Sequence to fold (709 residues):
Amino acid sequence: MSAAVSFTVVEGETADAGRGVARLTPEDLRRIGAAPGDILRIQGARAAHARAMPLPQARRGSGGVALDPALQGEAGTQLGQSVIVLRAEAAPAESITLHIDGFARAPSHLLLTQIGRALELAALEAGDVRAIKLPGGAPRQARIVATRPSGLVLVGPHTRIALARAGGAAAPEPPRPKTASGVLYADLGGLKREVARVREMVEWPLTHPEMFEKLGVAPPKGVLLSGPPGSGKTLLARAVANECDAAFFQIDGPEIVSKHYGESEEQLRAIFRRAEEKAPAVIFLDEIDAIAPKRESLSGDRQVERRIVGQLLTLLDGMKARGQVVVMAATNLPSSLDPALRRPGRFDREIAFLPPDRLGRREILAIHTAAMPLDASVDLDRIAEVAHGYVGADLAALAREAGMAALRRALGESRAHDGEVSVCAEDFDAALNEVGPSALRELASDIPRVKFDDIGGLDAIKTLLIESVVWPLLYPRHFACAGVSSGGGVLLHGAPGGGKTLLAKALAHEAGVNFISVRGPQLISQFLGESEKAVRELFAKARLAAPAIIFFDEIDALAPRRGGGGNSAVERVVAQLLTEMDGLDDRRGVFVLAATNRPDCVDPALLRPGRFDRLVEVAPPDFSARKEIFRVHLARRAVATDVDLDALARASAALSGAEIESVCRAAAMAGLRRAVAADRDAPDPISVEDLDAALAGLPRPMPSKDPTA
Fold:
């Protein structure tokens, strides 16, 4: 039997955004006589309908009804308010007619199918307004004009969808506290911590000022958002203004800078005056570092910036109370801001945005693929697992590129324009090759397609690298339980051609993490302090994109022994490198790998535990290793049946892996040369004679010109 019960509105699950789901504890569902999957009527200032689902186990102690922002808007309610919830009966919908705001073109069969998918399992009645997401566009308002049968109906896979013409019998849209075209908290994935902190700093003073008066506490007046570009700072500011129904004023630096004396300051004052008149209001200063840099660093010809900083400080202090006006600012260079801004009373709190973790990336991908027709092969969990270091903007670009790949495939197959198109796993794999973490765009190297199986021998070193780098990423809980840290780094040393660089390439592929390849000269600058700055920025960007591997090839050129009267810039780079590597234990997820054939030339301070924990010698291959290297390089080529790998391994004593690869390449060229001369399509198989000739013709080191040698 159905009963009407009052519940407090609590925050909905991020995954439920736009799905029309209301969550209650199993006990509360029984109180109203409902079961999971039933239709619920939620009565606030208006009526809304949703499908009943149980609250997750971790949230069942709080109680209340969990509604996403869209449902809150439909019911005319907000978090913390009370609504009446009861079970409702809905008949299967034969057809529904709706009007989409701002949509003028004639509907295609594909469009009607997409609308039906967006509304499937939704309970609707004439007069309802729903926000639906269509591929390639922002959410749109869909107003239900008519249903068959009349009353509350449930949209199913066989419901016929029709669009009403503009100006037809569409029901007028009721007033709503949140606009579906604006940004909502549900549109922000991977920012639960940041959203919670911003809400208590910004939303509470605007929506519950009386509570601060009762407590005798002055509400916060400013919050500074810092973090890498694309992490969601501006989006969160817009969501706050939209969710608390406040006026939103955005200030961009170039808009207020004027060549006329005093005009820039007057424009700032005018914005603050308008915000006070339209309170509650949010003033958002995007890229505040452009208009409020450190004053001591401003030269004499930059007096405009000095005056803007001074005016901004005065306005933030407020000669009089600002009322319900909160100032938000965003920057990705917080260290360049004037220190006077970063004190309580101006910006009361600084919130750092970090790249999202795996669960956050999964939430963001779900938001950006909500309107995509995804194939069953698409695994968002796998994509989130491999997208290390991607921020929200990167993941949005990833979803867009996957859609473009699907479109290219569909047009290449000459499908009809309104045919069925879906995004499959191969499209996302292609997008991952196109889109990388924006923080590493100028540093990241393409991960080589080299595997450990492509490297002959060196089994002990492969095992050590897997345990040192791959295991901490795959089994972090095991390492934490065992009290074992992942270590600082590994230095590979040995004769040239032994496979050191090849091991680094294979490790980058096997680990599946971001890979940064560094060569010494690219960090050295002639200007004082620039080399050390390059090293600091290198490690800072690696931490943002963690887990990541930094590979220093020929590190003896970058970090030679100090004290020999060498280049002072190089000595400062060594000192900065020592400092950065000391902090690796506190910056998990960044692993340093280096290679050199002159370990005696590397500064000894780098070779202690905590910096390079393992010094691994890549020795010349022994008999079994040489045999394995020959097998690897000959496996991809046609080889005569009488070729004996054991004989080749014995004949190649003292050769390095690179020299053995050169022998196999030269032997293959001999077979290719014969095929070209005889005008045959395929090259001849590699014979024993070809390999013997290649071994005999292998270039040897140049003899020393020192007569005493």
In short: The chain is about 35% helix and 15% strand. Confidence is low (pLDDT under 50) at residues 167-181, 702-709.
